[in-house]
Amino acid sequence: VPYYSPTSLFLLRLSLSHTGCCETDLWISSNKETTNLVKMGIYSLITGRRGPSGFGSASTAEEVTKGIDATHLTAIITGGTGGIGMETARVLTKRGAHVVIGARNMGAAENAKAEILRQNANARVTLLYLDLSSFKSIKAFVNDFHALHLPLNLLINNAGLMFCPYQLSDDGIELQFATNHIGHFLLTNLLLDTMKTTAKTSGVEGRILNISSIAHIYTYQEGIQFDSINDISCYSDKKSYGQSKLANILHANELSRQLQEEGVNITVNSVHPGLILTNLFQHTALLMRFLKFFSFYLWKNIPQGAATTCYVALHPSLKGVTGKYFADCNEVNPTKLARDDTLAQNLWDFSVKLTNSVSKKNYLGFEDAS
Ligand SMILES: NC(=O)c1ccc[n+]([C@@H]2O[C@H](COP(=O)([O-])OP(=O)(O)OC[C@H]3O[C@@H](n4cnc5c(N)ncnc54)[C@H](OP(=O)(O)O)[C@@H]3O)[C@@H](O)[C@H]2O)c1
After folding, report:
1. Please, which residues have CB within 8 angstroms of residue 239's CB and are 6 or more apart in sequence?
2. Is residue 32 part of a domain?
């Protein structure tokens, strides 16, 4: 049993409470399951211990994909202009995959592409405009992608934003839920037929990854606030982020179940990348830098942060593995809410209704997302 010094637990509580994972005293003492999840995570981070996969928190994206040939694969990654997404794109192209980056900041996307090409002149990178907080933009992105006549083997739903003040998306949905969950839900549905066709004609397993977070443990009491998703009076920037990350896991689980039922050769999994000081922390940047100084052992660098995504996307040992949640390149159990099949089904129905009602209202002729 690992020993946690009072100082390390204090720092954990402090840093997690500011990353939105907890009002720590409340749940660290009250929720044994969550406590164990966090303890295992800390143990793995401090020791860098490798799990059953042979990889651990200190593994990098290059290390976990070493020797893998991805030249036959086409991948879409959302938010590949910086942070974990850009490193994921870089490593996938290094392994030979053709990577399509969906980005809303085309200047940053051009810079990311230039950097990837600077390191690997043969890298195949395509940039397409995508704003996940706008249904209109998601539809345009899918049309642009289809116009390229490419197959699609991998879809990495990575883009995200965290702890922003209350805002509504173009379509009138709370911004963190809209960007982190609903946008990816719609995007995935609109790309699914292409992925199914690719998997069928190529015989190669398709893979969908939702980049979630350990922050899924800190959400509203009922998990997802179906009745008050836009309610400003009970908005918490941290719980709303946790809610959207819980939705990422539930979405992956329900889609995985549906594809298994259909007998489709596509897996769907979710990932917690670790704690990595990226632009994601823009709304708490100064505080996080301060905390990182005292809790450096809880943090990963970007190559380590992209490792779990790259492992789940490419590693042959995960063939056929679906509906699972990964952290530090190993399968772990998310919280009870994240494993609740009824909640996952309810979220699916809610998301279909939301995408349909908004798209019918605002964009006549928009493809039915169901
Ligand atoms: N860093 C961590 O410690 C951590 C921990 C757990 C989970 N995660 C998850 O990992 C994923 C990647 O995070 P990161 O740390 O790499 O953050 P990041 O550096 O801020 O990257 C996020 C990416 O998402 C893009 N994005 C945000 N809103 C978008 C929108 N509406 N449409 C299209 N793209 C949008 C950003 O583009 P812009 O530059 O245009 O904003 C950026 O490219 C996120 O899903 C996050 O929740 C991160």
Report:
1. 20, 218, 219, 220
2. no
- The range of the structural domain enclosing residue 355 comes to 47-362
| Residue of 19, 84, 167, 176 to mutate, ligand 1, most atoms within 8 A of C-beta | 84
Residue 5 falls inside a structural domain: no
Residue 27 lies in a domain: no
Q: How many domains does the chain have?
A: 1
Pocket probe mutation, ligand 1, options 18, 277, 280, max atoms within 8 Å of Cβ: 280
Check which CATH number belongs to the domain holding 230 and give it: 3.40.50.720
Instruction: Please give the structure tokens belonging to residue 19.
Output: 């990353």
Residue 241 falls in the annotated catalytic set: no
Give percent above pLDDT 90 in the chain. Answer: 76
Average pLDDT over every residue of 173-194: 98
Q: What is the Cα–Cα distance from 265 to 270, expressed in whole angstroms?
A: 17
Active-site choice (4, 129, 166, 235): 235
Q: Give the H or E element holding residue 109.
A: helix 106-119
Within 6 Å (CB) of ligand 1, which residues are found? Answer: 78-79, 81-85, 104-105, 108, 130-133, 158-162, 179, 211, 213, 272-273, 275-276, 278-280
pTM of structure: 0.90
Give the least confident one: 44-53, 177-186, 200-209, 268-277.
44-53
pLDDT digits (tens, 9 = 90+) for 192-221: 999 999 999 999 999 999 999 999 999 999
